[in-house]
Design a protein that fits this description.
single chain, 612 residues, 34 strands, 28% strand
């Protein structure tokens, strides 16, 4: 290769990664001796606009390389792409990037994310730990405000979940009575895990156990408690240093709701009951009343017209849904299926929430790279400063799981660096990093080598991992979580994963928490990682380096002032590897390490120097 450039090399591009609008960006391209270079242009393109050409300046030699430089300031936020056009004695060549960020003739253009200098992302959760609770299944506390008034069944805590009713229909109407007081009762348990924020599945009145089919946004579901129960949870959690984040489901409501009222259970004139309903224009009727737009074709979740003035005022206005609940003292909102929400609707969500509490987080459910996401033919400006503080980081989940299974260090590093490079660091530090959620297979099942090919969902409901299989899966899970906890962002535990709760796809992954059957060894591992996050929280709020180191994966986290620097070393090879320690401190045990330290397969070290 005649030329050298790597967007991840600070000698080639400064600053690294996403840049703030209005600040200078320096580019350097190196040309090896032996060929005459007439000139180099950087071709910069704002997404969807025309190319702009900037001539790079020859500034002399460096280590037998001709150096071409360019400094530009980009004032407008947005997504940009760039490549290099070179003119040489051999002809003209265009260079983009290969999958590792290095030059490739006719390669894909480099991405440059430019976010607003006015962007404000809360920092109070940086370096923390999130715990996701499916409220009906976490813990059942004693609360006189809780009432069971559902069409369904209230099960015993150790009963298994229902995957389909006797008539072949899945109604999600089996309940266990987990409630807000139950969470209050377990706050010490959560604090011992190092948890700093709880993300709760929807808590508003609904007919289902998952409550993603909202019945009434203005009331807590009576099975979970009351507004008093909610206030008590927020207050008690705050005393433990734990914030509460709610799940905001604003793309659709339930068909069994105050607004649609298909079953006539609510004392309201719902959209299904007449075209003169005040809620009629909230929905997309195709053939009234039984054909209507709904989320993924699921008729119990009719889609809402987010452009409807009445609906927007209800959700976004003063004393509306966001206003009311944020004022309770929320730490943030997680926006369900944010890709389904209009761009300006997300803008307004942020404005309303931040008006009440500028330190409240806005987290979006995005399954891909959120920096360049296209939904409904529109590029989404999620991370440019006017929408989301962070997202659910599925790319990290996929990268960690793939690495644990396949041990391709270079591919793993590249997958992580793609996100690290594309996201503003303030946003990445706000992202929820996880191995499983209510929408995915349980973490322990993801890590197991148990063959389920040819099984039905009914079969998978009854599968319990054999002891040997589960022990191997647990070893992989320990390594995976140790990696996850070292990465930028907020490691997120889906309730029960920390004690080995099993389960395949929804709803099998939503079993009640096994308080009487916890894997204590696995729980101790999670507690140890949580303690590490707490002790070195500044480092986990700072920058990251990641590289292969003699067969080991090596991750370094550094605080902004370099007062905390912690190194993570992971052995995912099929052989033992020795690490040469030089008076390092094992951050997990506090013991001094010297000489050759043996790392067996699946083991990891967290170390820092003695003066740290």
């Amino acid at each position: 290769m005649i030329f050298y450039y790597n967007s991840r090399d600070i000698n080639c591009k400064k600053p690294f990664g996403a840049v703030v609008s209005g600040k200078k960006v320096d580019f350097k391209l190196f040309a090896h001796d032996g060929i005459f270079v007439e000139g180099v242009d950087l071709v910069l393109t704002k997404d969807g606009e025309d190319d702009c050409y900037y001539a790079m300046t020859y500034v002399g030699k460096q280590n037998n390389n001709s150096v071409f430089e360019l400094s530009i300031t980009i004032e407008d936020t947005g997504l940009y792409w760039y490549k290099f056009l070179t003119s040489t004695e051999l002809g003209s060549f265009t260079f983009g990037k290969d999958e590792y960020g290095e030059l490739l003739q006719n390669g894909e253009p480099y991405q440059l994310t430019v976010y607003s200098k006015e962007c404000f992302t809360p920092t109070n959760q940086f370096g923390g730990v999130v715990y996701q609770i499916f409220v009906d299944r976490f813990n059942k506390g004693v609360d006189s405000d809780c009432r069971f008034e559902k069409d369904g069944v209230l099960k015993q805590w150790n009963d298994d979940v229902t995957i389909v009713d006797s008539d072949g229909v899945f109604r999600a109407n089996d309940f266990y009575g987990g409630n807000l007081q139950g969470i209050c009762d377990k706050l010490d348990y959560l604090k011992d895990l190092g948890v700093t924020m709880l993300y709760l599945s929807p808590i508003f009145k609904s007919s289902s156990n998952h409550r993603y089919d909202t019945g009434d946004y203005m009331y807590i579901d009576e099975l979970l408690g009351s507004e008093n129960s909610f206030s008590r949870l927020i207050s008690c959690a705050k005393k433990k240093g734990i914030g509460i984040m709610l799940d905001g489901v604003f793309n659709h409501t339930g068909s069994d709701s105050k607004y649609f009222n298909k079953l006539g259970k609510y004392n309201s004139f719902g959209a299904y009951q007449g075209i003169k309903s005040p809620y009629y224009d909230w929905y997309y009727f195709i053939n009234y009343p039984d054909e209507y737009g709904c989320w993924w074709g699921i008729t119990v979740t009719p889609t809402v017209n987010k452009n409807n003035p009445s609906y927007r005022k209800f959700i976004l206005g003063e004393n509306g849904v966001l206003d009311k609940w944020t004022k309770f003292g929320l730490a943030g909102w997680r926006l369900d299926v944010v890709d389904e929400l209009d761009i300006d609707f997300v803008d307004e969500i942020r404005k309303r929430v931040k008006k009440v509490n500028k330190n409240a987080y806005i987290i979006g459910e995005v399954w891909e790279d959120a920096s360049n996401k296209i939904a409904y033919s529109k590029r989404r400006p999620y991370l440019h400063g006017s929408q989301l503080d962070g997202v659910m980081n599925y790319p990290f989940k996929n990268a960690v799981i793939e690495f644990v299974w396949n041990n391709d260090i270079n591919k793993f590093i590249n997958n992580i660096m793609n996100i690290y490079e594309n996201y503003p660091l303030c946003c990445l530090n706000s992202c929820m990093n996880f191995l499983g959620t209510h929408d995915t297979v349980r973490a322990i099942n993801t890590m197991c080598d148990y063959n389920i090919d040819g099984t039905s969902k009914a079969d998978r409901l009854h599968i319990r991992l054999p002891k040997e299989v589960k022990e191997r899966a647990k070893a992989r899970l320990k390594l995976a979580t140790a990696i996850l906890y070292a990465l930028p962002g907020l490691p997120t535990i889906f309730y029960g994963d920390e004690v080995g709760l099993e389960g395949y796809e929804d709803p099998i992954n939503r079993r009640p928490f096994p308080w009487d059957n916890m894997d204590i060894d696995l729980l101790a591992h999670y507690k140890q990682l949580g303690s590490l996050r707490k002790k070195y929280r500044q480092a986990f709020s700072g920058s990251m380096e990641i590289f292969a180191d003699g067969g080991l994966l090596h991750i370094i986290r550094k605080s902004a002032d370099y007062s905390q620097i912690i190194h993570f070393l992971y052995n995912n090879q099929n052989e033992n590897i020795f690490y040469s320690a030089k008076y390092d401190i094992n951050c997990l045990t506090g013991k001094c390490l010297t000489g050759e330290i043996l790392l067996k397969k699946g083991e990891f070290l967290a170390i820092c120097s003695q003066n740290e």
